């Protein structure tokens, strides 16, 4: 087949046809966000049930802090590993394996009989948070520079909405189970089986209906001698190349300050509303869930605005947007920490939450341009930064011993992290290399 004979579907897409599944690009788009949604739902399914689980095992505040840290700690390592593995084996195999095998600890935590057992399986569940890296990788290889920021942000945002949905629905699932006459001790365990089953179903769909890139699957393309985006082999080489780029580490810090805060809020929000404002479990779940549901549009908005900034100016327009969003996030977080009424707290949470989600989208609108030779390594390292931020926040809360004070300190550090965003500016030569020509009809 000659180059001229390559079909339109074998090229990166320059538009997002939201209601179509006709092309491999759009099938990857929809199944990528659905896979991340399923993983995110399972990842934080325990959080809104913690007031019940705390009573079940008689957990102390220190033990709860350990559980929250465990939920995100292992993801640091898995995200760094799975990015280069996407370069090596392809996102289809990586995502399917993560979904199927990741369901095992989800079932395991439902069967835990002690604090130690619960902590063990909660730690293993953290591995499925690496789904985000595969999602971003898959859309980055499927979509062109005009829309890649929007594609990355939309799939991540809709996947992240799983965090909001789990906050709002897990208490309702538990309530429905209890209405059937099941005891509370058995009820929360049965409720946690639901996200595990969802992961297995989505894993089967991912394997059957996606491919690695517009041209096909990596294994078949390599066997046929077809070059894959720069000829990268992935694995350790991809990681080393990405780790040598200083922009990767600057964005690692900014992602720690936005997605890390998002993860921290998912873990503590429901309990915070119960303890500080005296809300019921259902009320607290709905309040906390509204933060996660912002991801339905806010993260996509961050990527969309970043794409528009790049069209109007350059890659540095994307950088400036990220800088502004980080400042807004830090200021809003401090406001949230000092809110003394539940109404004001929710308004403040939604305000800084908008900046949080948009900043996450703006970060991953930048990653495809940092180093195309090591897309998996770049995506994985920066993604791991989010979990480093969440773990650091968990240790901070454990040391401070007070959620409100912890939130205030975090807001200050987020403002400081904005400096890393602006320091990631690109040179004139790099801007020229990635300049977009006017769209043609």
TrEMBL record:
PROSITE patterns: MFS. Belongs to the major facilitator superfamily. Nitrate/nitrite porter (TC 2.A.1.8) family. One of its GO terms (biological process) is nitrate assimilation. GO terms for cellular component: membrane. It comes from the Bacteria. GO terms for molecular function: nitrate transmembrane transporter activity. This is MFS transporter. It is a multi-pass membrane protein. It comes from Pseudoduganella flava.
């Amino acid at each position: 087949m000659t180059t001229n004979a390559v079909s339109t579907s074998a090229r990166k897409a320059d538009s997002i046809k939201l209601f179509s599944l006709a092309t491999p690009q759009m099938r990857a788009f929809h199944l990528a966000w659905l896979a991340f949604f399923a993983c995110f739902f399972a990842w934080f399914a325990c959080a809104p049930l913690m007031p019940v689980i705390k009573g079940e095992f008689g957990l102390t505040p220190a033990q709860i802090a350990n559980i929250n840290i465990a939920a995100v700690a292992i993801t640091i390592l898995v995200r760094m590993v799975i990015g280069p593995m996407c370069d090596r084996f392809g996102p289809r195999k990586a995502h399917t394996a993560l979904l199927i095998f990741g369901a095992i600890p989800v079932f395991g935590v439902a069967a835990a009989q002690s604090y130690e057992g619960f902590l063990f399986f909660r730690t293993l569940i953290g591995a499925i948070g690496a789904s985000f890296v595969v999602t971003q990788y898959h859309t980055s290889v499927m979509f062109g520079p005009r829309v890649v920021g929007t594609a990355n942000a939309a799939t991540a945002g809709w996947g992240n909405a799983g965090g909001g949905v789990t906050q709002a629905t897990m208490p309702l699932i538990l309530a429905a189970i209890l209405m059937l006459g099941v005891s509370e001790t058995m009820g929360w365990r049965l409720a946690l089986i639901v996200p595990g089953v969802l992961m297995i179903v989505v894993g089967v769909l991912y394997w059957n209906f996606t491919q690695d890139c517009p041209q096909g699957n990596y294994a078949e393309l390599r066997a046929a001698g077809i070059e894959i985006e720069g000829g990268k082999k992935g694995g350790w080489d991809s990681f080393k190349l990405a780790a040598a780029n200083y922009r990767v580490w600057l964005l690692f810090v900014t992602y720690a300050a936005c997605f890390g805060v998002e993860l921290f809020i998912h873990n503590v929000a429901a309990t915070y509303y119960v303890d500080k404002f005296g809300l019921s479990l259902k009320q607290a779940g709905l309040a906390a869930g509204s933060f996660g549901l912002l991801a339905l549009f806010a993260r996509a908005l961050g990527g969309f605005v970043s794409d528009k900034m790049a069209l109007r100016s350059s890659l540095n327009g994307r950088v400036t947007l990220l800088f502004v969003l980080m400042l807004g996030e830090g200021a809003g977080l401090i406001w949230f920490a000092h809110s003394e009424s539940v109404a004001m707290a929710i308004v403040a949470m939604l305000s800084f939450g908008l900046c949080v989600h948009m900043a996450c989208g703006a970060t991953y609108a930048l990653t495809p341009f940092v180093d195309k030779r090591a897309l998996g390594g770049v995506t994985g390292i920066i993604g791991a930064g989010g979990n480093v931020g969440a773990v650091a926040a968990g240790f901070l809360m454990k040391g401070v011993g007070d959620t409100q004070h912890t939130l205030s300190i975090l807001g200050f550090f987020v403002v400081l992290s904005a400096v890393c965003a602006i320091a990631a500016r690109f040179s004139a030569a790099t801007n020229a290399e990635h300049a977009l020509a006017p769209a043609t009809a």
